[in-house]
Amino acid sequence: MSGARLILFMHLTAKSQSIAAYDVPERVKSYDADMDLMHPNRHKMLEVVLDLVPFARDTHFTALDLGIGTGFFSQAILQRFPKSQVIAMDGAASMIEMAQSRLGPLADRVDFRIGDFRDLAKLISGQCGDLVYSAFALHHLSAEEKLGVIRETMKFLNPGGWFLNADLIVADDPHFQGRYQDLRVQGIVHRSAGRDERFRSESSTRAFIADLEARDHDQPLTLIEDLRVLADGGLHHVSVFWLECREAVTGGFKSE
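and the corresponding structure tokens:
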């Protein structure tokens, strides 16, 4: 494991629906390619998050990655800030393994932990840091569950620390939500260019998305609801830093 620590905090009870949906080796192998097809804006969202991190490149700090996935965001953080350390968690062991492989030597600066966000108090008990970030993960939680996670991250953050979230949102008007989905489907079909059977037509793409969202137990909030959860969780000056249709980068910081 390249010297990296791996701690298992998974309950012996059944995993949540969203965790189980991702803890499948076959899905993990195609995850990044699928993300580039379905969420090409994640590259821009990563740039926004990197630009917002308020530290000089040679600053020593500890960050918490809520849902490391295959390590796409953490890799960029570790490369941009060579003296940073990351506590990286995910509910899916298969994702952790993929992240370890992706990070290579960078994994020596990562403390991997397998567990459910809803057990965050146990996962990071007594530890502190200056940055919490998450990408395409927290929309699997209900508003109440997300609020609980934000409150726990406030205990982790030192005064002045930042929370940044690159994730999905839902429109508060069915008409706009329908249009966003139309644009999403059309974009996937165009980018796939007939190379993937799942996305050869708009109808097959819509069927794939409907099944995916059901299996992943997606519960995205509206932008207003999302910002309210961040504020109610204790973050100050919450804001949306980037927004395009159904994707947004939001966040705030812990008061000094």
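(Above: one complete record from the training split.) The chain has a mean pLDDT of 89.
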